Amino acid sequence: MKRVRRVLVAATTALAVVAASSAATAAPAEADRVGLQSRLDGVVAGYAVGALVEVRDEHGVWRGTSGAAELGTTEALSDRGRFRVGSIMKTFVATVVLQLVGEGRLRLDDTVEAWLPGLVPDGHRVTVRQLLNHTSGLYDVRRTFPMPPSPEFLDNRWRTWTAAELVQRAVVNPPTFEPPGSAYGYSNTGYLLLGQILEKVTGGLYGAEIERRIIGPLGLGDTSLPGTSPRIPGPHPHGYVPTLRDGEMQLVDYTEMNPSVLGAAGEMISTTTDLNQFFAALLSGQLLPGHLLDEMRTPGGEDKMYGLGLAWQDTPCGVRVYGNDGDALAYQSWSFSTEDLRRQVTVALTPDFRGDPDDAVEAFLNTAFCD
Asked: Is the residue at 281 inside a domain?
């Protein structure tokens, strides 16, 4: 499974997946679980400090871990540990946007200018649909920041950013293509704007709408939108970023940071269990009617496998899986489900940046979905 581009992707960041470990909560097929554990251990041995996973399949629910919760220790991870989900949050935002479309309060063809006058140059040419499927051409705010391993990256660690400030950093740069809708170009800026549009439509904070419409009704008790709070509540692994110091690459603990820089594009904290529950509810039609779920699964560009906040991949065994992945720098995560929900996999890891784990990750996901 090839990677999907995520929030604030560091140039040195290798995407990775995770998998499972010891704790089984239903009667598993032992051989299958041993195989998953072995692949998970391989990912951690080569590319990560720690990893955690939840697999739901015909054998039940299996949660597990590999590696350590903190670098330089043998502290075990909690299989209920929380982590920053990065761009997986985009699917939550897109779901709320589409709910408002279903209620007649917003249209996919509404322009940015109609809701946020004067904020985006030529905003009358950019639609809500284009923000959702990354065809707006808006410059990605991620590109305006120093990235690891640059030491300057840490200068913004504790700063509080407003969505308007972040959007302004982006739109002073020219569009990456013209006209809007003519190509695909991943842009976190679009989701910052969607958060602002949600607030204009509802009169409340976008986080409150996500909580009211999704987190609360689904009972996602370990999912939160921290705003400016730097802490991850409850049990969680430590996350790290690479930094160049005195000519040497070092891992810096980046567990605590002000997540306002991610905003509606990826500030969310969650768990493997909550993410599996969310995607099960979404794909089963609990959150959106069929015609809007079909809109979500409509690709935004030719040969792209990304619709309105939802991604998909085709496995070697011919099974298509839907979901999203996220990169919050110190945390990387994947959450995918088969369309019939017979198999779901959510994995998260804290990368150590020794190399690119893509092949190991792909092997894990293929094992989980196909074997």
From this structure: yes
pLDDT at 302 over 90: no
Q: pLDDT tens for residues 326-340? A: 999 999 999 999 999
Q: Where in the sequence is the domain holding 300, given as residue range(s)?
A: 30-370
Distance CA 298, CA 295 (A): 5
Minimum mean pLDDT range among 3-7, 168-172, 290-294, 336-340: 3-7
State the helix-helix crossing angle for 358-370 and 30-47, rounded to 10 degrees: 170
Residue 315 is assigned to a structural domain of this protein:
yes
Tell me, yes or no, whether 14 lies in a domain: no
Q: What is the pLDDT of residues 23-40, one digit of tens each?
A: 333 334 565 788 899 999
Mean pLDDT for 207-233 is 98
Domain count, the chain: 1
CATH number, domain at 183? 3.40.710.10
Contact partners, residue 248, CB within 8 Å, separation at least 6: none
Q: From residue 254, how far is each of 41, 232, 243, 344 by CA, in Å?
A: 23, 11, 11, 29
Give CA–CA dist 161/258, Å, rounded. 9
Asked whether residue 3 is assigned to any structural domain, the reply reads: no
Return the active site residues: 87
Give the pTM: 0.92
**What are the helix (H) ranges across 203-296?**
206-210, 216-218, 272-283, 290-296
CA distances from 175 to 178, 190, 221 (A): 7, 12, 39
Between 303 and 223, where is the model more confident?
A: 223
Tell me the C-alpha distance between 255 and 81, whole Å.
Answer: 13
Cβ atoms within 10 Å, residue 200: 11
